[in-house]
TrEMBL record:
The lineage of its organism: Eukaryota, Viridiplantae, Streptophyta, Embryophyta, Tracheophyta. It comes from Salix udensis. Keywords: Glycosyltransferase, Transferase. Belongs to the UDP-glycosyltransferase family. Gene3D superfamilies: Glycogen Phosphorylase B. One of its GO terms (molecular function) is UDP-glucosyltransferase activity. This is Uncharacterized protein.
Amino acid sequence: MNIDLYIHKNNNPAPLLLIGTMASQSHQLHFVLFPLIAQGHLIPMFDIARMLARHGVIVTIVTTRLNAKRFAIPLARAAESGLQIRALVVEVLKIGVSVGSQVTLKWGEEEKFGVLVKKEQVKNAVNSVMNVGEESEERRRRARELGKMANKAVEEEGSSYLSMKLLIEDIRKKTFAE
C-alpha cells in the first residue's frame, strides 16, 4: 500500500530517475500517463490508471500541483486497495508561460470570481514565448529538448516503445490463449 507523490522542481531530476529505476529493477511494467490538463480529462485518466494497476503494473500520472490536489483522495483509495498508482508533480518544465488563472472553476463562473483571463494577458503570454530574447530562446530550447526526449522514448528500443511492445505481447498472449 504505497502512495507516492513525487515533486519534480526546476533542475532536480532525482524523482524522474527514481521512477525510471523502479520499473527496471522490479521487472514490472510501469506506465507513465500524461493527461491533458483540462479538468474533464482527469477522471478518465485515473480510471485508466486504476484499470492498469489492477493488472499488476505500476502507474505514474504526470500532473501539475493544482491537479495533484484532485488526485489526493483517489490516490489514497488506490493505496488502500494495494494498487500501485503514483502522481508525479511537474513543477516547472520551463517551456510555457502562465496566462493568469491559478484556480479551477465551473464553466461560466470566471467573471463571478474575478479569474477571467483577459485578452491582454493571453497576448502578453504569447509575446513572451515568441519574442526574441534569452528567456524566450531558453524556453524554446527546452521545448525542443523535451520533444527530442519524447520522440526517443517512442522510437524502436525506446522506453515507451518497449513498454508498449510488452503490453501488446501480453494482450496477444491473453487474447490468443483462449
